[in-house]
Write a structure and sequence with these properties.
Layout: H1 3-21, H2 23-29, H3 38-41, E1 48-52, H4 57-68, E2 73-78, H5 81-98, E3 105-110, H6 116-130, E4 135-138, H7 153-181, E5 184-189, H8 204-224, E6 229-236, H9 242-249, H10 252-261, H11 274-281, E7 292-295
Parallel strand pairs: 1-2, 1-4, 2-3, 4-5, 5-6, 6-7
Helix pairs in contact: 4-5, 4-11, 6-7, 7-8
Length: about 300
Amino acid sequence: MSALRLATRALFSSRRASSSSSLSTTRSMGTAATPSKIPSLFSMEGKVCVVTGAARGLGLEFCRAFVSSGCTSLAVLDLVLAEARDGAEELKAYAKELNPEAEINAIGIECDVSSEVSVKKAFADAVAEFGRVDSVVASAGIVHNYSAFEYPVDRMRRLYDINVHGAFFTAREAAKVMIPQGGGAIVLVASMSANIVNVPQLQTPYNASKAAVKHMASSLAVEWAKQGVRVNVLSPGYMQTKLLKTVLSADTELKETWERMTPMGRLGDPEDLTGAIVYLSSDASKFMTGSEIRVDGGYCTI
């Protein structure tokens, strides 16, 4: 028998032995038919991401999600420049935790979303650094709790300037960059409050502002659809950010009320939003625009 045949027989004998030894595992786990392209659709590799309100809280969590999904070019926009830069440095450290050899370009940019001039400058700075913008998340927002009769007018105007006008300015500047380059993805962060009335806290202007953001996204989605710009909404439920944890630590009754009213029986963790934000910002949702994803533990269903 030739040496080639002997070598071939030995190879197949080895494969049969390996197959036999792992048969129980194969039977229980199954075997993939072909490599899937699905994971690559969720990749943020090669995309330039811009997130407002990103120095802390949900905004920073969205940035971490993008880094975890392969993004290496990211602009952290926030009201205070020093805090935006701190957020960018935190993302660089986070990337190193994931991969010691990782090198990402995360920059902090000062941005007051209530100011059209400030938003324009922030996007100009991002484009000057990266040359393009692919995915934008309008995450900056505030909330106040007053009854309708006691709500200070100046605070109501400030809330609308940030939550509504800020989302519009952000989306508009993003689209100005995206349309000439062939498209992009914009996510406006609303709230489950766009769909329901929160109880027991009183926050009518906030609820109305988030409903405005939700419908704004639908309108912009139609306006820019044929130019390749997708606009969708992410509506979180109660999320245990550091700030909310501090608030609820002094009001355990409120926490218990919210948990009782949530079908899943708990409040959300910021990490619960990461899958949704990557989906909406990536090519995985390339035929989706004008839509809303609620991540609320079922709160809005009852």
